[in-house]
Amino acid sequence: MKKRSEEILQSLLANPSQKLTIIQFKKKYKIGERTIRNDISEVNDFLRKLHISDLYFDAEGKLNYGPDFDVKKISAHLSQMSVYDYKLSKEERQIYIIVHLLWEKRIITMQSFADDLMVSRITILNDIEKVKDVFQNTEDVQLISDPGRGVFVQCSDLTRLDMLVRYFHEIQFQFVKNGFYQNMIAESLQIEYPFSVILAHVQDYLEINNLMFGDDSLYDLVLCLYVLYNRPKSEVESININITLNEIDNIMMYVGYKINCVVQMQMLVLFRNFRKKHAIESYVRSLDQIELYEVITHFLTKIDQQLQTSLSQDPKLIDSLFMHIKNIRNWGDLDVDIPDVQQYIPEYQMIEQAVSAHIPIVEKYLGYTMTENMLHSIMIHICVSLLRSRNRSRAPSVIVVCPGSMATGRYVEAQIRNYFDLNVIQVLPVKELDHMDESRVDCIISTVQLPKLSVPVIQVHPVLDMEDMNHIQSQLFTLQKQPLLKKQNVVDRLQDELPADLVQQINELIQSYKKSGKKEKSAIGQLLERDCLQIDDEDHTWQDGIRKAAQPMIHKQMITAEFAEQAIANVE
């Protein structure tokens, strides 16, 4: 199974409830449908060895799996794959060779590479020719051959560190996360301190000290620490206690303390030189939380003024954007797929243009330009806010599932209530899942893997990261654009809010009405279909009332969005 096929399978394993589509794959990988189907066929070859049903695309182009799709079993077998099973590409073999030559300050034989990668010695010799080209195009690096023994790299320690960071950046973010290739590299280098652990400690330090990194500078800094802490160390000179350390030096000291690893003087010197070479200090700034709230509110107010919306009055939207921007180091590298929103928000392009026009307000505060993925994530939040204000009178109902400890579930619940417009109706330990009434739930958010259920399941970490946030927000968008289970039956909606005897009277009245037979429709009744009528007790401006009333008819293509806007313009 090659890289792209594994990525597709890993994406499905990471969030089985998501609906991946052919269109998403074509856009992400820039390949045709036939190639995608070939990749799925390769995945199915792997699944058949585990006696698991094939993946398949339905008529709408959505990727589906059978009831025996076992996430734990598949993940376990993926982690046990060998180089023989994985089918390394030329690029992957050559990166493997480059990283090992930079990592080790010793001669490495061609045969050892051939044994590691399960290829012939001739194949390695051909790969080495390509590797020579890479090193020849890099200043201060020489690939030296020792006839009969092997090859080694000669360069300064800073150049070695710089190149390792560059290639680890590619391995970390261009290959599937926690995939076979990453694990293979880490195991072969005998990595003791994982990237995720070092990143988490750096984030803790930044949080404690109200610091924020921009662009990719944080990842470069973490990868620098990842190399320095994991590479074999030849000297034991510790740092002089009289040396002056700045707040970025202290990141290294804090991480070293957390992972119980002594920081040597040579490590600190290289860390400083690397930062100086890449001007990393220029991307660091102190974070004033009140100021950031003001910047976000100002950004949304500008959009409101342009589009006559009320985004700046939505506290959930402001809170979620605040968390995203504050933790921007977590989400800039994530692939963010925007659901098909244009059929539900006709003015989507106008909103997108307004966001693009006013995002410099936020970018000026942050000190750098946001990536396309960051803008996509912001758009999802704004779209959810609009759907929430226009189409919903009730938040989707969710259940939080935790392992045995209710404390974990309560902590997840607190985060959800803070950042999302969701009604958490219950927190359950996984052992009580069988007693759950799925008919009363729109979605489940769980910190543990669950079997396939009739309602969507989102698996998250106890402390929500940006990938968790994006998964929840995307699912929330899906829920916002379609009827909730609770809206399918009026009595079901009321049973949690009204006395039982009153609910019974309402139910009897409804049944009595149904038995009385249908009356002849009036002219307006013949014109309008029943699902074009809405009952809403929220406060709206008359302009928003017209827009909301028009939505069902726009969805049915009875009118266009421009018709509603022209109706408002005629009155104004």
UniProtKB/TrEMBL annotation:
Keywords: Repeat, Transcription, Transcription regulation, Transferase. Residues 287-392 form the PRD domain. CDD domains: PTS_IIB_bgl_like. One of its GO terms (biological process) is regulation of DNA-templated transcription. InterPro entries: BglG_antiterminators, HTH_11, PRD, PRD_sf, PTS_EIIB-like_sf, WH-like_DNA-bd_sf. GO terms for molecular function: protein-N(PI)-phosphohistidine-sugar phosphotransferase activity. Coiled coil: none annotated. This is Transcriptional antiterminator. It comes from Catenisphaera adipataccumulans.
